[in-house]
Amino acid sequence: METIRNWLLPLVLAAGQSALMWTALGPDEKPGLPGLIAVACALSLETAALSRRRQAPVRALAGTLCAYLLGTVAWQDGYIGPGSLVAVYSVAVRCPVPVTVRAVAAAVGVEWVLSAVLEGFRASLLTMALALSAYVLCAGLGEARRQWLGGRLTAARRLAGAEHARRTAGDQERRRLARELHDVSAHHLTSVVVTVDAARRLKGSRPELAAEALSFAARTGAETMESLQRLVGLLRDTDRPGLGTTSADIEELVAGFGRLGRPVAAHMPDDLTGPTAEAIHGIVREALTNALRHAPGAAARVLVRRADGLLELTVENAPPRAGAAHDAGGLGGGRGVAGMRERAAAAGGELTAGPGPDGGWLVRATLPDTVGPRHPSGPVWRRDVLREQRLADPALALTAMVLPVVTALTATEDWSERTRRASVPELIVVTVLLVLHALPLLWRRRAPLASLAAVLATAWLWPVAVAVAPLSPRVSQFLVGGTLVEMLAVYALAAYGRGASTTWPAVIAATFGTASVVTATAAVDGSLAGDPVDGLVVVMVVLLGILLAPLFASLSGAGLVVRRRRLRILANDDFALASSMWHAQRAAEAERHRLALRLREAVLHHTASLVDLAGRGRLDDVATAARAALAAMRDMLHGLCDGEDPGGRLAPSPTAGDLDALCRAQRAAGRDVRVRGLPEAARDLPPSVDVSAYRIVEAALGAGDHGPARVTLRRRRGTVHITMTGVPLAVAGPVAERLRVQVTAGQGRIVFEPSGNVRVSLPAGPAPAPVQEVSPSPYA
């Protein structure tokens, strides 16, 4: 599949160029046999170079430029050579910005030098302007793709981390509670046993030790009971963060929620610590988790500020975007707001939550400031958002500026020298108008509606300039090329705006606004195509609007489709992350409850009996009770440390070789599941791939299907191919997202088929050393 993807586009480009060159020109315009051979060599070189555009994009660009030189020299009027545009796009996708800038400069320089040699210096300037516009546009689109892929990779890593936390939450919580339990009380009970045994052995020679031992047992038992009861109380608080929470922990928490591609801003002092910081940590986590569940893709803001010895916390999220809503049923614990109120009250504050003024959700808490400011400057700003495109918007704006200007300058080549010189001031005015008209495209993502409004407003400078300058008709006609800006602004409004409800009225306004501007520019001199403008203006506006309406509607529809797809991807990420976090919290909560129950039933009962017996002076019974309490404590610690492994060791992670046992377990449960391809495909796999293969099949078979299923493993050319059939519940929803994350983390590929089949490819050997020309950053 990867080989087909690498070769398909180059072969299509080669075939298209061959057909176009052969049919578009007459027999007299075609070169001789040597020229045709050179052109065929150029096409072959371009095709071979583009086939390596993903693995070595800079080398691919060098190859396409060499092919362009060879083909253009051999057949100047016939060879097209679009491969260098594709190669520049690939460089921008896979290399950092400095490499992309150098690639664009090299491509433009090659075309300019070649044009200067073949056509002369003056014509080469137009060629250079047109080439610069085309290459910068390709580089901008490639940079946009690179940023999107970088965001997807970050999201996949974040989801993989959440999935790993979900799987290991129970084990980690058991180990943490074992450490706390041992530190809190185990050595107390050991001291009681040692002291009481010593008093019993020496009660004949030193009877005073018995009273001291009883007093020590009563005192230590009471301290142990107090510690255990406090630990049981802490276990009831299932959302309690770790001790020692600081501003950095809260900022990291906010950053984690912001790495999936939506704006999350944080503003807080940098010196928060203590119980108040723990309360803020828990409230922010609960509030942002609720935003993930109920408003996926929406912007959020976390604000903490000091005022009159208090800390005012505000967590606000915008309403869910259209098309991004997700069913969060089953994920909520039903105590979100109540738990936040309890946390604020425990810290000595209060909390309110409810709908915000813009339809979103607003959480406000007032907490005591137990630390106070340390620095006069206090708060620092931090924002984790989807990175703004550094080249895409300027590239589109530059293209919209340059193309009409280049078209105008090219048209002036047919004018006389006298007419050309007389039109220079008018051409400068037209250039300034086109530049002003395209500038609002720089804000098309951040403020698409305002950008479209500015584009439509600056277009009305055209008829004003034609009337005031005045501009001659032979020059003012070039202003019509600026309508490309309206098209880009309409698409941006649909792709980055607030949805169809605001897009379609703006599209209608843009359609007839553009028609009105073009008609007014043409009719400002009092005539339209040589006829008086009496009733023709309205007719022309309507006719031109009718002609533009399908074009603008198509652009708007394409933007809405892209927007809906992007929001659906972000919503799926949010849902999968919230699901993993929820399951991890529930697993940890279950361990806490289990430990609290055992503490009450076993250790606390024996410790209370120990204190009671010590108060009555029954030394022998105190020794028995202390031993029983210590034995119960050790049993608990042994169970916590060993988990479910009766052998006292953690079981090794299952691997692909254990898939047969997994299928046997499924068959024992009543489901017909078979595996083929073992053990040949699973022999000598890298450890990470070995474990990933098992986890992927386990997740797919555990999706909830009950029908027969088949698992097939094949190994070919350093890749393990896993095909799972009969798992329709695994091709969509959270299970599909989990599988996609696992496969992406293992640098593999996954395909979901509507028929209920899942196909996975994982590398079966060490990855080759990366080519140095490709950036080692996560966006590569």
Automatic annotation (TrEMBL):
The keyword Translocase does not apply. Keywords: ATP-binding, Kinase, Membrane, Nucleotide-binding, Phosphoprotein, Transferase, Transmembrane, Transmembrane helix, Two-component regulatory system. Pfam families: HATPase_c, HisKA_3. It is an enzyme of class 2 (transferase). GO terms for cellular component: membrane. Its EC number is 2.7.13.3. It comes from Streptomyces griseochromogenes. It catalyses: ATP + protein L-histidine = ADP + protein N-phospho-L-histidine. This is histidine kinase. Residues 173-238 form the Signal transduction histidine kinase subgroup 3 dimerisation and phosphoacceptor domain. InterPro entries: HATPase_C_sf (IPR036890), HATPase_dom (IPR003594), Sensor_HK_TwoCompSys (IPR050482), Sig_transdc_His_kin_sub3_dim/P (IPR011712). GO terms for molecular function: ATP binding; phosphorelay sensor kinase activity; protein dimerization activity. The chain crosses the membrane at residues 7-25, 31-51, 58-75, 121-142, 391-411, 423-442, 449-469, 475-494, 506-524, 536-562. CDD domains: HATPase_UhpB-NarQ-NarX-like. Coiled coil: none annotated. Residues 278-369 form the Histidine kinase/HSP90-like ATPase domain.
